[in-house]
Amino acid sequence: MKKLAAHWQIIIALGLAVSLGVIFRNFTLQNGVESSVGAFASRAANVSTFIGQMFMNALKMIIVPLIVSSIISGIASMGGVKGFGRLGAKTVGVYMLTSLFAILVGLMVVNLIQPGLVDGQPNQEIKAAFDRSAEEASASSLEKVETAGTRKATDYFDFFKKLFPPNIFAAASDNGQMLGVIVFSILFGVAMTRLAEKQVSTLREMIQGLNDVMILITEWIMKMAPVGVFALMFPVVMKSGAQIFIELGSYFATVLSALAIHFFVSLPLLLYFVGRVNPLAHFKAMRTAVLTAFSTASSSATLPVTMRCVQENAGVSKRTSSFTLPLGATVNMDGTALYECVAVIFVAQVMGVEMPITAQFVVVVAALLTSIGVAGVPSASLVAILLILKNSNIDGAETAVVALLSVDRLLDMSRTAVNVFGDSCAAVIVASSEGERVLEKS
Ligand code: ASP
Questions:
Q1: CB of 392 closer than 6 A to ligand 1?
Q2: SS3 state at 117
Q3: Which domains does the chain have, with CATH numbers?
Q4: DSSP states of 201-250 as a string?
């Protein structure tokens, strides 16, 4: 019998998780949390969370050795700093371009739908929902938001500090410090190209070997993807309360439609016209990575899968992808940049703060800058949103961010899928400009 393709297995797992999550949730609501059904459901959700975390951890486990070995072996094989400099400049250019496109789409949609207003006035129902959810919020999420709230405007430039971590091992063991690991690996790779062949040939082979091993381990972990995806999704569906989703319905619609426009229109247009790539074929090539991003809500955890899809299905060379993708997973977040822009303007609308075009321009720049520094982990962008809200002097910023945090999962999953797809588009655009035979348009 023919084996079902990986992306179908993941889609079926997602569908099962949603259906069972809804069924268990309704049973619990009808019979109460104390009932035997309720107790069983909550135990099932706990076991599921545990398995989901194991899957996430397994993916995260290989990130550091994968990033280090792929960047170093990629650069070492480029034969000189010149080729690398050109690739680097192109990559950063494409990242800026796609993020800017994303933010402008967000800006347009949020101004068109105005989810925070009713008849031109701040929506009081949403404001009340913000207050209620801040009251109900768990201590841990309040603490998270409070700590984030103490950051200052200068933190916009935190990014530059992260470029050179004082301790590379400490940076490697901290999820938010991948940028430092990337810079270190680039320096390492470039230094290797400057040394005599006999000094580095063994090292190069070793690092290449390490890279091959990491790729094989990724393949093994992905065999567990359907189970992992189910386990991550099921408790999310079971625990999500419907009330706040209804109150924030227009906000959800705004974010999701803006993300969809970027995913289905702007990126494919860039693929077609700038990269000369067939967008449909590229979608197909990236299915598994996009679904993994959606399920894990973490672009970092998805990186091993993204690299595999881009290299094996989208036809991008190891030389190009091994540099663009690790960098992209950390600094290029189209979905996140778009989301930050929409969220800040939405909160301003609800709080009754006028946002003239100049203020919106500041938000655009801030979203572009902060999205570079946001870590590729779940809900990371809420810290950036709080920072921008505070710098825009919007009252009630903390309350709003706590409320957004409580309904973040679905939006986080969607923007992470866009982040990862954006990275893959940038990789093929750069590859095609380097004359590689990617999935060319006919
Ligand atoms: N979860 C997102 C990612 O990993 C970051 C964010 O927007 O919170 O790409």
A1: no
A2: strand
A3: 6-433 (1.10.3860.10)
A4: HHHHHHHHHHHHHHHHHHHHHHHTHHHHHHHHHHHHHHH--HHHHHHTHH
Atom number, ligand 1, closest to the C-alpha of residue 300: 4
Do 340 and 381 form a contact (C-beta atoms < 8 A)? yes
CA distances from 213 to 47, 207, 238 (A): 30, 10, 37
Residue identifier of the C-alpha nearest atom 1 of ligand 1: 378
Q: Cα of 11 to ligand 1 centre, how many Å?
A: 21
Long-range CB contacts for residues 124-128, cutoff 8 Å, separation at least 24: 125/247, 126/247, 126/248, 126/251, 126/350, 127/350, 127/351, 127/396
Chain segment 267-295, per-residue pLDDT in tens: 999 999 999 999 999 999 999 999 999 99
Distance CA 181, CA 114 (A): 41
This model's pTM is above 0.90: no
CA of 56 to the centre of ligand 1 (A): 14
Cβ(412) – ligand 1 distance below 6 Å: yes
Nearest-10 crossing angle of helices 249-261, 81-113: 140
For residue 153, what pLDDT band results from cuts at 50, 70 and 90?
very low
Report the nearest atom of ligand 1 relative to the CA of 374: 5
**Could you give the 3-state DSSP secondary structure of residue 34?**
coil
